[in-house]
Write a structure and sequence with these properties.
This protein is mostly helical. About 55% of the residues lie in helices and about 0% in strands. The protein has one domain: Lysozyme, CATH 1.10.530. The protein has 10 helices and 2 strands. The longest helix has 19 residues. The radius of gyration is 16 Å and the shape is globular.
Length: about 210
C-alpha cells in the first residue's frame, strides 16, 4: 500500500517544492511571499526534547496513518503528521490556541466534530477510538492523543486528495479552510504562511533523518 501525497513513495515532492521555491523565477508577489517563509524555516532546529515528546505518540501516528481513508491504497505520510504536530503544538496534548483549537495538532471543535461524524460512518476497523465516541464527540475529546491524531490523519487525507498533495495547499486548507485557497495558491495570511514554512521545515528534517 502506497503512502498518499506528502508523500511516499514520492517523498521527492517536498524536495522539488523547496528547489522550485529557491531557484524558479517568481511570477507573483504571492509566490515571493511564500518563498520568504519557506526560507525562514528551511533549517528549523529540532531538539531532543521535541523528539522525545512526539515519540510518545509514534505508535498512534504510525497506526492511524496506515489507513486508506479517502482513496484505496493511499495513506498519509507519518512524517508529515509529526511535522504538523511539532508546528502546531510542539508535541503538547493539552495545547489550546486563542481560537479554541485543541490538542496535539490543534483542531477546532467544529472541524473535529464534522470529521468525527464522517469517520464514524466509514467501515474502518481501527483501534484506540470507538465509533461511538466519534459519533458523540465532545470538545474535551480533542485533548485525547488518539482522537486528535486519528482526526488529523483523516483530514490530511481529505486535503491530500483535494489538492494533489501540494504541501502549501494542504497546510492552507488545514489552517484557513479549503475555501481560503484561490487560483491554486495559498491565502496571504501571515499565520498560514508561517505554518506552511514551519511544517515544510520540520517535514524536511524528518525526511532526512
Amino acid at each position: 500500500m502506497n503512502r498518499c501525497p506528502l508523500l511516499r513513495p514520492a517523498t521527492s515532492l517536498l524536495l522539488v517544492f523547496l528547489l522550485l521555491a529557491a531557484q524558479a523565477p517568481l511570477s507573483s508577489p504571492a509566490e515571493a511571499s511564500l518563498t520568504g517563509y519557506l526560507s525562514k524555516y528551511r533549517n528549523i532546529p529540532v531538539s531532543p526534547g521535541q523528539l522525545k515528546r512526539i515519540a510518545r505518540y509514534n505508535h498512534l501516528i504510525e497506526y492511524f496513518s496506515s489507513f486508506a481513508y479517502i482513496r484505496p491504497k493511499h495513506r498519509v505520510n507519518a512524517d508529515f503528521i509529526r511535522a504538523l504536530m511539532l508546528a502546531e503544538s510542539n508535541g503538547h496534548p493539552k495545547a489550546l490556541s486563542s481560537k479554541g483549537a485543541k490538542g496535539l495538532c490543534q483542531i477546532t471543535f467544529a472541524t473535529g466534530k464534522r470529521a468525527a461524524r464522517e469517520l464514524a460512518q466509514k467501515n474502518l476497523p481501527f483501534r484506540y477510538v470507538s465509533k461511538r465516541r466519534l459519533a458523540n464527540l465532545k470538545p474535551r475529546d480533542l485533548y485525547s492523543p488518539a482522537v486528535n491524531i486519528l482526526l488529523t490523519c483523516y483530514l490530511i487525507a481529505k486535503y491530500n486528495a483535494a489538492f494533489q498533495g501540494k504541501l502549501d495547499l494542504v497546510v492552507s486548507a488545514w489552517n484557513a479552510g479549503e475555501n481560503s485557497i484561490s487560483n491554486n495558491r495559498p491565502p496571504q495570511y501571515k499565520e498560514t504562511l508561517n505554518l506552511i514554512g514551519k511544517v515544510n521545515g520540520y517535514f524536511s528534517y524528518f525526511l532526512k533523518n
